[in-house]
Amino acid sequence: MGMWELVVVLIVGLIVLGPERLPVAIRTVARWIKTVKSVANSVKAEVSEELRVHELHNNLKKAEQQGMQDLAPELKQSVQELQDAAESVRHSYKSTENNKNKD
């Protein structure tokens, strides 16, 4: 939106809403825009994460088909990431089990 279009919108808003309600309307619209941007960024992050997980899954399938030998660097990295994630889950599971046994 250009500067003149913004000026026209503000003048029309001033005429329609009046000087008392225009600032409130501007703040409300700004909040809506902020909320929409926040939701869009969150959806974008979720889609990116799902695509990364899908890529890791495909790379793991390729690695299994190759017998986990002579893997391309990106396949090795994917397998390592999956192993690290599995180890962190195992570690947190063990610490949870140890805490339960102490109680």
Automatic annotation (TrEMBL):
First-listed, main subcellular location of the protein, grouped into a coarse class: membrane
GO MF annotation, one: protein transmembrane transporter activity
Membrane topology: Single-pass membrane protein
Keyword Amino-acid biosynthesis among UniProt keywords: no
Gene3D superfamilies assigned to the protein according to its UniProt record, in alphabetical order: 1.20.5.3310
Biological process annotations from GO: protein transport by the Tat complex
Keyword terms, alphabetized: Cell membrane, Membrane, Protein transport, Translocation, Transmembrane, Transmembrane helix, Transport
Pfam families per the UniProt record, alphabetical: TatA_B_E
Protein name (database record): Sec-independent protein translocase protein TatB
Organism field: Pseudoalteromonas piscicida
